[in-house]
Amino acid sequence: MPTRISEVVRKAAFALTASTVLLLSTTACTGQSATGSDDDASKETTLTFWHAWSAPNEVKAVKSLIAGFEKAHPNIQVNVVGNMTDDKINQALRAGGTKAPDVISSFTTNNVGKFCSSGALVDLNPYFEKADIDPSTTFPKAMNEYTQFDGNRCAAPLLGDAYGLYYNKTAFEKAGITAPPKTWSEFAADAEKLTITQGNTFKQLGFMPNYHGWETTTEHYLGQFSPTYFDTAGKSTIATDPAVASAFTVQKKLVDDLGGFKKLETFRSTLGDEWGPKHPFQTGQVAMQLDGEWRLGMALDAKPDFEIGVAPLPVPDDQAAQYGKGYITGTIAGIAATSKKQNAAWELVKYMTTDTDAVVAFSNAIHNVPSTLAALKSPDLKYDARFKTFLDIAANPNSTTSPASINGGVYLTTVQQLGYDYESGKVTDLKAGLQKAASQIDTDIAQAK
Amino acid sequence: MAATHTLRAKHRRSALRTLAFLSPWLIGFAVFFAYPMISTVYFSFMHYDGFRPPTWSGTKNWTYVFEHYPFFWPALRNTLWLVVIMVTLRVLFGLGIGMLITKIKTGTGVFRTLFYLPYLAPPVAATMAFAFLLNPGTGPVNSILENVGIPAPGWFNDPNWSKPALTLMFLWGVGDLMVIFMAALLDVPKEQYEAAELDGASAWQRFRFVTLPNISPIIMFAVVTGVIAAMQCYTQPLVAGKVASGVIQGAGTMFEPGYPEHSTLTLPQLVYNLGFQRFDYGSACVVALVLFALSMAFTALLMRRRGGLIQAGD
């Protein structure tokens, strides 16, 4: 028989249950359309600029970049908001509102396809044409490619990232290695020579091959193998392109040879985080590191007690002639479709991404690769001699990037998921795993269309 | 005729008055439940990315979620695991601690405070602290276990131990249930225990036939609210997975929640992933509806079983 208490409980349960859907659905399932704007960029205005940089020197560099813009455009003030994740940017672009950004910059070029296809960021082609700037002759090829999708240029490159190999020169000397490895076979041999075990763990690990080891993501490894990812019809080629299977096999062998997945994972859980001073390369716990050009500045700031060497990442043994290439990505900047000040916003984007002096100064301050051809050649570019390696990787015609896709980086997470399952031994049949992943990628893209 | 008319008018006035008094709740219900609910069902049949106008897609989102979205079934299994195992343990543990504290003669206030304090810890901070304590390589818990010769688990880094680790953390924060159970236990009439003792009832019999019937409505409350909380479990598994995985979303890195091997993935995480990261609001709505249906089903099931727990007249 129903009682007063159970009624109360039932109502409370019902209300709480309802709130689940309420909270989820009200936020998840509403939105608004993108709007254009016809603002006058020569009038007094204030823009909001969201970026993702967070390290003190990076935040200082952004401030300096914006100060340069405000000096050149005294009528435009910029409200800068840093440390923004892509999730927050995605939501702000969707929701709009008075506090939403007019200009955003994102670290994840993987999202460009999603930003362009959804109309979250405005197409910059008309703005470039109006300003008489040709993006194909302004930006390096790979950067020009990853900032557009299906003819819609919804972003412009704002500095670039090139991936290479950092190595502990002192540890190399102790292990009797005279030069950085050029092929994956040499790399595997060196990684073993550099590994010093201590009980169940490591005193020094030659290389942390696990996909959870910071920048050792599947796409960064794959960049060295020049995969195609998609055919001309837009279907996934990861199961048919031998480069993909080859990259997975090389990584898995490294995992197995250096101690096995479990031992490496346990060791990894003892290491410092990627952005802190206790980064394992900087502490000498890991002798070789796959990383971006920014690591050099960070590693030097940490004042390690060894000499840092920099080189391109190795290439597959049968592609030795292409040694010097690398994976290229970078930060992108775009104008929010919800912005009511798009013309003024363009002035900021144009300044940040095409003004040679601004790009060079920002690059000097933040230790990233310049994103215009003019800036790459600028005599004002100041860098450590080792940084030149990354400029060369960025300029290398064999360097690769991952193509934009309608659903952003979903295909890359599918590949990465297979990577996790393969390295841990959960998936043992690589061919079947790749076929399943390819089918999943095609299904996900069909769902997004 | 006139009398009937007057009566009808009186009924109408009475109905309007009732509705007027109910209106705050009705408006709230319409705005915060009915409209979102209908919208969720509507968008579950639409292709919608939040920017372009929604277009009809039939059952495509439903098929995608149930047949092609690789994370749905693991997330459903994890959510059900938390509902069954974690809720059961939390209720038993909360009741056990509540009973122990009511038995203590001195220092009750100190113990109450000590057991209640962890409940006040913010979820992210609590999860970070547990990730540190249970770190398989450097955590003090595993150091102690290894020193006494017990094989140390991988906790948040091992798919077989990640959910038990989460459960352990939720048991640590059981202070809310402990307080409710303590209030209920102290409310049990003492004369009933005295009568049972005079009849020669053992400790177990006193618990079974005196304590349990008296606190059964509170147990029901704890179970129902626990089930709903477990269904909505989002922050702790997400933070635990992120911290343990070591993947920080940076340049060119993508993060799929649920590390390790989807073992900490829950349905609310999927709603977020689909809706806010993939811009696939249609599929996010499908998962939200599944979550709603499950919550309703569990609640209905528990309510149907309430006869065994809640006595008439309670």
UniProtKB/TrEMBL annotation, chain A:
Signal peptide region: 1-30
Q: Where in the cell is it found?
A: Cell envelope
Domain of life, source organism:
Bacteria
Keywords in alphabetical order: Signal, Sugar transport, Transport
Quick one: where is this thing mainly located?
A: other
What InterPro entries would the database entry show?
Bact_solute-bd_prot1, SBP
The cross-references to PANTHER family, in alphabetical order and at most eight, read: ARABINOSE-BINDING PROTEIN-RELATED, BINDING PROTEIN COMPONENT OF ABC SUGAR TRANSPORTER-RELATED
Function of the protein: Part of a binding-protein-dependent transport system for a sugar.
Protein family per UniProt: Belongs to the bacterial solute-binding protein 1 family.
Q: Per its record, how is this protein called by name?
A: Probable sugar-binding periplasmic protein
Query: What organism is recorded for this protein?
Result: Streptomyces rishiriensis
Q: What is the lineage of its organism?
A: Bacteria, Bacillati, Actinomycetota, Actinomycetes, Kitasatosporales
From TrEMBL, chain B:
A Pfam family: BPD_transp_1
Listed transmembrane segments? 21-45, 80-102, 114-134, 165-188, 209-231, 281-302
Entry's SUPFAM superfamilies? Answer: MetI-like (SSF161098)
Q: Does the keyword Amino-acid biosynthesis apply?
A: no
Q: What membrane topology is given?
A: Multi-pass membrane protein
Matching entries from PROSITE patterns are given as: ABC_TM1
| Compartments it resides in | Cell membrane
Q: Work out whether the entry's keyword set contains Cell wall biogenesis/degradation.
A: no
| Superkingdom of origin organism | Bacteria
Q: Which UniProt keywords apply?
A: Cell membrane, Membrane, Sugar transport, Transmembrane, Transmembrane helix, Transport
**Which part of the chain is the ABC transmembrane type-1 domain?**
76-302
Q: Which PANTHER family match?
A: ABC TRANSPORTER PERMEASE PROTEIN (PTHR30193), ABC TRANSPORTER PERMEASE PROTEIN YESP-RELATED (PTHR30193:SF1)
Task: Give the family from UniProt.
Answer: Belongs to the binding-protein-dependent transport system permease family.
Mind telling me what this protein is named? Answer: Multiple sugar transport system permease protein
From which organism does this entry originate? Streptomyces rishiriensis
